[in-house]
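User: Earlier you gave me the apo prediction for this protein. Now I'd like the version with zinc ion bound, so I can compare the two side by side. Same sequence as before, with the ligand SMILES added.
Assistant: Got it. Here's the input I'm using:
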Amino acid sequence: MAMKNVFSTPEYRQDRLLEEWWTSCEQGNLLSALKKHLRTFVLCVYGNNHDSTKEERLANKFLFRPMEYFLCREDPEVVFEELKAKNMPSQLCGKVFKTGEPTYSCRDCANDPTCVLCIDCFQNGAHKNHRYKMNTSGGGGYCDCGDQEAWTSHPFCDIHSPNVAHQEEQNPIETLPVDLTDRASALFMATLQYIVEILIWGQCDNLPSDLQPEGELHDTYITMLFNDEVHTYDQVIKTLQRAVKNCTAQQAREFATLVDREGRAMVYGGCFASCEQCRSIIDQSTSRHNSKPLKVQVMHTVVVAHQTFCLKLMVWLQKMIEKSDGLRRLFCLLSMKPQEDGQSLMEKLLLHDTQLWKVARVLSHQLLMAGVLMDQECKKQFAIIFTKWYPYVMRDFARDDHDHDVCVASLSVQIYTVPSLHYSLLMSEFLLDTHYRPVSITSLSVQIFAVGTVARMLVTDHDLLSVILVPFLEACEEKKNVHGVLTLSKAERNPSFKRACFMLYDLKYALICKPASDEWNDKLRNNFLKGHESFLKLLKLMQGMDEVKRQTGMHLEYEPEWEGAFNLQMRVDDVIASFTEWCSTDRTVFIEAYRKTAQMLLQCRDNSQKSEQHTVCGHTVKCLKYDVLSKAVSIHLPLSRYLAGLHVYMGKFHLHFGCPELNVENLDPVKMIEPPLRAQVMIAQSQAGLWRRNGYALLNQIYFYHNVKCRQEMYDKDILMLQIGASVIDGNEFLIHLLNRYGLLVWIKPEYDVPTGQDDNVRQTIMLAEEFLNLVLIILGERFVPGLGQVTREDALKREIIHLLCISAMSNSELSKNLPDNTNLETGIEDAIHAVANFRKPSSIGAAGSGKFELKKECYKEFNPYFYHYCRTDQSQAEESQIKRKKEEKSESHTLPPPVPPRFAPQFVQIVNLLQCDVMIHILSLILQRSVAMRSRSWSETQLDRVLHLIGLALHEQKRSIQDGNIAFDFIGKALKGQPNLMKLLESLVADPKNISHDSTKDLLSWILQMFMEVRQMTSLAEARGPTEQPTTFNKEENEAAKKRKARLAAKRKEKIIAKISQMQQNFIRDNAELFESTDADTSLMHGTSEMDISESAHHESPVAVGKFKSLPCNIGITKATCILCQEEQEVSHNSRAMVLAGFVQRSTVMSQCKNKDPPDGEKSDPLFTSSDLHVGSFANSCGHTMHADCWQSFFQAILVKERRRLSRIPHSLSYNIVQLEYLCPLCESLSNTVIPLVPALHTLVSESDISDVDLSFGDWLDGLQKTVENSMKQDTSASKDDPFPFLLCSLSSITKMMADSVASNFQLLWQYVSYASGGRFSESLMEMMKKFAKDVYSFGLSVDPDDLNHRVPIMAWNTCAYTIVNLEQYLRGEGKPLFGSSPTRSVDCINALVKFAAVCGHVMPQKIIKKHCLRLLSGVLSSGLERGNDPQCILDIDLFHYLVAVTMALPSLYTEGATSNALPLNSLNNQYILKLVFTAHIVQAMLLSDRLTEHEAAVKMENDAESIALMSIYTEIRRKAGCLPPSNSDPLPWQFSKHIKDAVLPFLRCATVLYHNLTGVPIPARLQEWTEETDAFCSYLSLPTNFSELFLSQGELLEGLINRWCSSDILRARLSSATSQSLVSYPLSVNHLIHLPDDYSQLINQISSFTCPSSNGNDSQLPTMCLVCGVVVCSQSYCCQTEIKDTKVGAATEHTLRCGSGMGILLRVRECQIVLLAGTKGCFIPAPYVDSYGETDQGLRRGNPLHLCKDSYKNLQKMWFTHCIPETVAHNIESHMNLMSIHWQHL
Ligand SMILES: [Zn+2]
Ligand SMILES: [Zn+2]
Ligand SMILES: [Zn+2]
Ligand SMILES: [Zn+2]
Ligand SMILES: [Zn+2]
Ligand SMILES: [Zn+2]
Ligand SMILES: [Zn+2]
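And here is the structure of the complex with zinc ion:
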């Protein structure tokens, strides 16, 4: 994108320019003078520079500094300081939130949840001690600290608390010098005019004439690409690579990022023709597939330059006005001053918002926020302007293709939220976070605000409600069907209606603050009612949405749309509640609103309804004729429901239904109840199975109708409407209407029970009757609505909670999930919960897992099984757990009687009469009769249960009316009339409950009868028979018999189930025959028999593993194993079928001592000497399950075949990656990628004792080896210098020639090696498995492609063994556990198998290679081998345990003959001397590195014994040799030093013990089976001196020479001098931990909020993600930070994980409060280890409760990471959450 530098800098003199400006300013003509200057200089600054610092410098020089001087007339810095001093200390914080910054809301004091604080204000204020919520900001919005209207108490923090001195309000402009005011006015006006002119200038190739540069324009153009919501990143990137010359993928990605971030990007620059060509390619290649092409324009450089300058100018202006209150006010006034055309400049910007690209919008909004919205005065004015243009802006927005948050319409939240003027939550937050609790006013502890706030003012004076609703209704207009009802279909993907729905949010804000009754005035009433009228129109449009008709015959062909209507309903819910509340505060408004609503409802009726007459019990009623089964029914009835919502306030205003004041003609209650009744009937019919063919759409509707999210404005209100009906319609008539609509008029005739042969409908009728009784119970019993019953909101809430907790104890989040959303009630919810429940903490303190709430004992009596918010499962679960509870409490009666209901409000007392009306008594008696009858076809126990509850309710009411002295209610009287009467029927039922199967019903029956008699006595009616019969007990024997029968039935059922399950298993095995081959169905868990019998060791006094006095071996590891695939058991031997362990090998960095070093390239690295920082290693583990090698092979083949078939259809979608050879263990499903061959115990392979009588001193041994190395190196002088192996082994004879005779023979004897030739060679299958595992360890351990012949294959086998042992040692050390006996069998078995494999793997490799490795290893320590090569090293650079393993395994091959070897590392003398040598070297390491240790004071002082003093002098000597100066601080005391050295080398000794134990099979002494920090026990097992000084003293010149050589290495000296950059480790190596996390989660959020995307200079990062291993934060899952690795795009987290964890990652997404685990290309999410006070995690940060670190969980994460369990955790998670598969983890 090179552009010629065609603009030369014109002549410039600031003083002359300023003179000119000041003059024209006085003449009122600054704008043209300014433009004259800009005409030249804008192009010169912004026209040709790509160097942004240069651009900035020029801009300051030519553009901004002159303007500042113009304004100030002297040094601007000085003037601005003076102005600043005059500012009143702001009492408003107003800090604008960046994306991701923490925000706090006080649940006790905030007026609504949009009131938030920044972290500084929060921490310096009172609210931190209150109940608060935290959240992360989505960007935008600002801190409300200091706004008295936002908080009910503590509005100020300590920083912003009001200064008493500044009491009186002064116009800040008056504080400015007059002349400065004049100049500022002129400058602000001119710049603003210029900005508006440029931003709304529509042309691309020229400018307004007064800005157009003189002369011909150069032919320099720019192709400008704009963003849209249609095209994806990838599409844009591809298109750009095609359209722009020489555009690399990286550049294209940068452009795409820029377009996304700023809204446009210059993608190409050049002459017009080439720009145009670029444009047309982009246009063409994106306009295919009918989609809108990408917007792209060719613009002249001069236009772009001015636009760029405009943006900078806006930023500059913002800076100016922030300097002084006076300048801010001045700016606001000017920007809102109407121009000649009547519009102010602000208005112009507002109206052109949608024409601007993103960054221009953002900047103009920021200017608005910093200027207008921060000034209380101006905000009101702006709000008025905004309201004026609202419909226009919203219409424009609906057509626009930008996100809501970059649109000026998003400012409405700042303006409309009440009570304060400015609110912080941008609407984008509402959008992104669906869980955000919608604002509702329901329980505002009503604040009365002195002055009308903006929203109120706007409603009153500017008709805000209509302003919002009218354009919304317009948007609805297009969606109306022929009946005038909204139809929202999914098929239309037109987003404009969705966008229009934002207006509903605005409506919600506008209504948040409801006026108190004395705040109403006529103007407010008028305008409110005007808005109300529009609102009713909306409800009318919604009334009857998505009508359904019962489908008969065929099933529905496709599911009808239903979601749209529910979404709209949910958005309108809050608005409905707000309108209701507003109406409830003023009588006049209420009456008018009620009348209007009723009239509107009347308009909805279809008047063609016919009626019919029905007579029941002598009552004749004219009913509406409507068949729900054949005609359309809708579940959407917002208008009816709104009326019901209003109705409950009638009592408050002393009104009643039909009173003249309301004066609604034709309002017939029968018609009012009709729509909700139809909905109830439809649902009942659906329950009865009559609507089956209507499919899921209907079921979903019914589900949501009852769901906690919707029911408040749906189901609950329908019940309320029916209750209203019951309160104004005569009881008999009401019931007849219900029966008629349910189609049950036949059922209540006694003759219905006589069989007629048509049994088909009876079942359905029974169910409908049950539903009918249920509805009647609900109408009578559900009184917990304020206004309906004499209850408060709190009572209602408590009741909800009680009924939830009757189901089971629940955690806090379960409870709140099941309670209606209501943010303002939230603290109320908490109080209510604590009022009725006790919190039981999680079982152990600090343990992971959440605590639960349990209902308080005294609340159980409130339990009502017919609670109307119970679904069927809830109901039966609740009943079950209540009966169980009663049984556990051993209470006498298990009855769950109906609870005493609260009283109805006076308006509604009439409902109670339903219980005593003739029809009701008839129904009760009918069902009781059918219960008693020998046979009844229409009876069901459910009906009886409901009838009993009804009677119970009636008895409660009877009792209450007796107590009240109310004789009008006479249920008992009516119940005792008739033949047989209810009491008689009850008695006979109790006497003979043959039809009743449930104990609970029997219990209830007894309870009812007793209560009946009790109440009857109270009524003191005559003929009381007295309680002679005690009906509570049933015949016990009969009961027992019934129980036995039941038990028998249950047993039979169980048998059947078991049979079925085993059948299923059989089928499964048959279907998966290839996997099971000859497997029996019995697949019980079989462990490989591990016989690491440590008890045996007790026989040996103190076993020794190496050297002359080596103890006898025992069998350890797996000797006999069962194949999990074929179930055959087999001995592990070297010459039969091979056995293998399922295993997983991975590259690992968990023990790295240098976290910010890049891992070496596996292709190039030389792993022979492992670096001492353990930077990267190869780790193997196993689930411990054994298989035959061939069984495993056929199992794996089967998977391969299956996978190949599947892969062709769906790519990558399994928890394991077959390309990486991954599979799941067939028994336990652990992730595996290889198999570890099982080699029998090594000592069983040799026939006789391996120690031939060799008598060789350490010195002679060392001499022999050193001679070997030196001669071998000498011999190969011909090799070139680059040869990594400049060795050619000299023969043994040539070495022995150089020795004394006796020594020579013994040395020779040493190599007459132990081999297992006596027992024959390894079996083919074992060899094959050994080769396979060696290959896998090599390729996974180095993450390179497999290569059988690579010389590094055996090295990786040794290293994997060493690394795995070190990891186990470190883990156990970190946990403070002993080495033996504390780790699980599977890891013991795995290490044993690895050691034995390492010992024999040389047998399948070419001997030449092993010998070379051995020579190199020896030369490293015995000669100058380390210093050779490109990367010279010294003794401090290598890890000596890895070295020990390698040299132990390689040494036996040194002098073997032939191409292959079968030597085993069992020569005790060799092993002893190697160990001694390496350990000595390790002590030297530890000593040289010891002064880096900080001394820790030991609590107990010890004596300086001789050994300590000797060691100390060795230390001094070694340091002298290494050329170290004495340490600056005084030397440690000898005993301290001695202790330190022992600590330092202990891990090495522990690892060596594990190694030789597994190699030789010598049992572990008892002392080592417990935790010990003493080195002695290890030393004696390893046949090392317990006094380390012995290793140095009198060991001969040779060793001394070696130590000298190590210490005098130049490299070592360089390492030790502080100047070196390479960091050194210190011993003991520290055990790595995940980073420290703060206790308080908000600290973490705050910490991360300052993080910006590293690749888009200082922009916010959407998903900052913190590596828990090293603490680095990356910008994850974003195009801006993608990189390419091996031709695949990877996100920043993956990229980091590759470097930091070599593919295994554990990262924290701070804003989402969740952990990402990454394992190669797979991953999963788990909750972060933070919990709230209820012990619950908050994945996604949805609840916002304060969170604190849960130490246990974090420890578990630490363990998972350190023991390499991330891949396995990921695989398990993917198995159980299939949706995780669709995520492209490598893009994270
Ligand atoms: Zn603040
Ligand atoms: Zn503050
Ligand atoms: Zn508070
Ligand atoms: Zn097998
Ligand atoms: Zn397994
Ligand atoms: Zn980024
Ligand atoms: Zn890291």
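For your comparison, keep in mind: The pocket of zinc ion (ligand 3) is lined by residues 106, 108-109, 127, 130, 154 (CB under 6 Å).
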